[in-house]
């Protein structure tokens, strides 16, 4: 079984690449035209905002839909952290093949670990180490369009939830796993996928989502209430429409629509204690039903709460899973 797979590209991949390339070509032509000044400068000032809306929407939608590879940890395996493991492959619920690493449990509970955008399953090795040290088993895997798993477009969490559910199905079919003691911890993109998957299947008995962020425009908390949000609203609206076009999915529900459906299974939300991540996480927390917890981590960067205080992080997540899964 290979840890690096050559991924087949779909027509959508090349369509999106052409759109992205055309955007940069158009910007170059505009810049050359502005340098020659065929129009008075106020014309270019008036064009600046609509050009910003269109180009930023295409640029960020392309980056989200086609995550770049990060190879810093490509040769790392759980063995480097002293874990006994096996490499595994399993299907997502919509039949993509996913690649991962399974570490068996000593206490009977298994945690699915779901990495963030642009990463690989092995990037969760720090979180895995904290859990394995306390007797938990873990399943780390590459999400679709990442690492060695199939797929060539990322859907911001909507279809990635099918990856989480495929991991759940795989674990429930193993003879060494108690199907009543499976939890999930997701980071960023993985956090959104974890929340959506838990809302779709009660087999996930406990959920931790760190910095999940919005899935659809409605997840931003309704109509804009500040000048900054009003200025960004047209760009956000265009971005989400381009995103749907590029990744080919039409999400019908967001995090705010589904998070309450996880109850009565417990949810913990973790947020970097600054900026929009904290604001959005608090909005999601208010929408969740009990039992729920929120942990706001000072000085943490997005998806980096573990690295601020590894000991406190381990105590928080292990304590949460002990209360939810130990019986």
Structure summarized in a few sentences:
With 327 residues, the chain is α/β, with parallel strands linked by helices.
How would you portray this structure in words?
It is a single chain. The protein contains 10 helices and 8 strands. With 327 residues, it is α/β, with parallel strands linked by helices. Strand 5 (182-187), helix 5 (189-200) and strand 6 form a beta-alpha-beta unit. The model has no long low-confidence stretch (mean pLDDT 91). The protein has a domain at 78-222 and 253-325: Rossmann fold (3-Layer(aba) Sandwich). Strands 1-2-4-3-5-6-7-8 form an 8-stranded mixed β-sheet, sandwiched between helices. Helices cover 43% and strands 14% of the residues. The chain starts with 10 loop residues before the first helix and ends with a helix. The protein is globular and about 75 Å long.
